[in-house]
Amino acid sequence: MNLHLVRLLFAVLMMTVLALAGYLIGHQLGSGAWGAWIGACLGVMVPILRDMVRSERLMRWLRDVHSSAVTAEAAPRDRGVWGELGYRIERSLRQREALLKHEQSRLDQFLSAIDVSPNGVLLLDADFHIVWCNAAAADHFFLDPVRDLQQRVTNLLRAPAFVAYLQGNDYREPLAMLAPSGGLHLTVLIRAYGDGMRLVLSQDVTERLRAESMRRDFVANVSHEIRTPITVLAGFVETLANLPLTEAERHRVLTLMEQQTRRVQTLVADLLTLAQLEGSPRPTADRWVPVAELLEQVETEARGLSNGRHELLFPDIEHAPLDTLQLAGHQTELLSALANLVSNAVRYTPAGGQVEVAGSVRGDGRFEFLVRDSGIGIGREHLPRLTERFYRVDGSRSRETGGTGLGLSIVKHVVQRHGGELQIDSEPGKGSCFRLVFPSVRVRQPIQAMSEA
Asked: Are strands 311-313 and 354-361 parallel, antiparallel or unpaired?
């Protein structure tokens, strides 16, 4: 039999028993039938009053729960229907609270994930008031994610292009705009959702535009650098084919053709070197290169390039610590970086000038290659861009000296791949100083050599 039906029959039976008991007691104590019926009514009122007390306790508990919005205390544990009703309500409320906490936790995690997104997310209501924004959107639009909540976005972000885009309700194409701070290029996309609400997505495309610009400049520069010698070669070939030349003239033309061919070969070699540096993994720290060998090879190349026109100062590598010092890395890359610096110093230093090359261990354990010259120097405004591909302070002079405009870019890539840094100090008329600084973890001096010293 159903439990609720049993309880109902039990309650009816109890009321009947109480009514009968009250009737008998009233008949014994009262006068006649009136006393008996009064006793019966009092007997029936006892369970009714008890239920009223229990229901009032339950209602008081429900009011407390509603006012606090948290089920802190347990429901009254009365017997019978009211006790079970309180228990079931309490269990339902606690299940609801657990579900709300779970959903709130998921919402917090979702908002936290959006908050660390590199793209900006801005939620607006139907009146364009800010409902929520993440850190990226606050940075893009110069907003305060706490102070500016519920503020109308068009009062804070007054860029005419953005206001027109927001109010135009035509969001098929994204909007390209400058950030209010002026330092960033943004792509803004708006989507309508809900009851007139707006989702504003912003993306910082500054680096992408910069990369596209660099790629266009790179293609244009390569085309220009290759076109010039090819044009010269084509002219010489036509001259040899159509004009009768003396032996001296023929020799001069062939010499110039050889120079232009070598120029193209050097340019292609530098481009291949850059491509290899950018596409290969970083050099491991378990291949040790003797510093003395690097300096010896660079000195040989420098003296051949200078041909006695400069005063070249190189360190005495037969004495400690340079004779035993080693660098961890790729020998060909390290040699290429150092040779590029020394080659630039020789080519941009007038005859009779001085070029100094040194190597030393700093006090913090880092190793430094130093290349200093007494050449023409470089203006301070050019220093930040010196390592850009094909960037030249004086284009005509670079071509006269045989430069491709890629040497310092190669140097920067090599030193960064080895965890180091390139430091440049120069002033017009006072020469230049270039330093390749490598971290201490890539520097060692064998224990045996140290003990012998």
From this structure: parallel
State the Cα angle at 206 between 134 and 161, rounded to 5°: 70
Nearest CA to 7 among 84, 110, 68? 84
Token pair 């490598």 in the structure block, residue: 438
Residues 74, 91: Cα–Cα separation, whole Å: 9
Q: How many angstroms separate the Cα of 384 from the Cα of each of 50, 129, 378, 432?
A: 89, 43, 11, 14
Q: Look at 24-28, 62-66, 170-174 and tell me which has the smallest mean pLDDT.
A: 24-28
Mapped onto helix, strand or coil, the DSSP state of residue 241 is: helix
Residue with tokens 């060692």: 444
Whether 180 and 142 have beta carbons less than 8 Å apart is answered as yes
Residues 317, 304: Cα–Cα separation, whole Å = 19
Question: How far is Cα 229 from Cα 424, in angstroms, rounded to an integer?
Answer: 31
CB-side neighbour CA atoms (13 Å) of 271: 15
Q: Which amino acid is at 124?
A: L
pLDDT value of position 39: 55
243: left (phi over 0), alpha (psi -120 to 50) or beta: beta
Structure-block tokens of residue 247: 């032996």
User: What is the largest distance, in Å, between two alpha-carbon atoms of the chain?
Assistant: 161
Note the helical H segments in 116-246. Answer: 135-141, 153-156, 160-168, 206-242
CA distances from 106 to 99, 111, 113, 270, 365 (A): 11, 9, 11, 54, 49
Q: What is the pTM of this model?
A: 0.56
R_g over Cα of the chain: 44
Q: Please report how many Cα atoms fall inside a 13 Å half-sphere around the Cα of residue 61, on the Cβ side.
A: 22
Closest C-alpha among 341, 358, 346 to residue 434:
341
Burial string for 223-257 (b: 16+ CB within 10 Å, else e) reads: eebeeebeebbeebeeeeeeeeeeeeeeeebeeeb
Cα atoms found within 13 Å of the Cα of residue 329, Cβ hemisphere only: 28
Any bridge partners for residue 367, and if so which?
361, 438
Contact 319, 433 (CB under 8 A): no
pLDDT tens per residue, range 328-370 = 999 989 999 999 999 889 988 898 899 999 888 888 889 999 9
> Can you give the three-state secondary structure of 64-129, one letter per residue?
HHHHHCCCCCCCCCCCHHHHHHHHHHHHHHHHHHHHHHHHHHHHHHHHHHHHCCCCEEEEECCCCE
What pairs with residue 434 in β-bridges?
371, 424
